[in-house]
Amino acid sequence: xxPHGMALDPAAGDVTPAVLAIGRPDFPKVLxxxxxxxxxxxxxxxxxxxRAGAAHCLLDAGNIPIGGDLGAAYAGQFHESDPNRDALFExxxxxxxMLPAFAPRMYGARYRKIFFHDSGIVxxxxxxxxxxxxxxxxxxxxITAQGxxxxxxxxxxxAIAPAIGASVARHFQQGATPDQTLxxxxxxxxxxxxxxxxxxxxxxRILEGFNSEAIxxxxxxxxHSTLTYRKRAYERLGISSQSELFSIxxxxxxxxxxLN
Length: 260
Known about the structure:
By secondary structure, the protein is α+β, with helices and mostly antiparallel strands. The protein has helices at 16-20, 27-39, 67-76, 85-90, 109-117, 151-174, 178-188, 197-207, 212-219, 223-237, 242-254, 256-259; strands at 43-50, 55-62, 97-98, 121-131, 134-143. A hairpin with a 2-residue loop joins strand 4 (121-131) and strand 5 (134-143).
């Protein structure tokens, strides 16, 4: 828990709130809030698909009033007629999948009526990631009042999709708390595990959004010491910026070992 009054670093990673919300009850809200800030996503739905043919709606958050009904209908039967199904089931090995751009003609008449006309959905982007025999299928929607995604918003979703997919999979597969997730990465995964204890403590707080002054206060050390530990940690990791530190964590989250 961040101490009261401690400042957040404004340069914190773009999807950091969602990563740090893994395992928390408010994960769905934090996720949709993050997606809205990044690409003005209106609604997000997550489905778990198995190679045995089962489907479940895991998350339904946003501005579509009948989202829960749509999730139940998709999990009940319509997953079998999803035109993205082949692309989803060709994926393997834990690599993120970015699905083809949305086009209404891809879908059958009944599917279009229920999932797009009746709901007001006018655009969709989607990503997915397999962990073992389960595919976590993450869908991003916009409704009539918002209009379609712009080219820049699509590109932004493409950029953050691996981190979002990995965060969703981690949240629903293991139910790990944010502290447990970071603890596991720093204890067992290279290159983070190679840092000294104090270097890890500084990096942990950087990932949690603390600025240098707040880190010094939390650890009871001088600002000079904090900057020294950060410099040493960055040198060990072969990086030179906070964004690169976030990239390491998100890459480890997206890796198959961290999700199995």
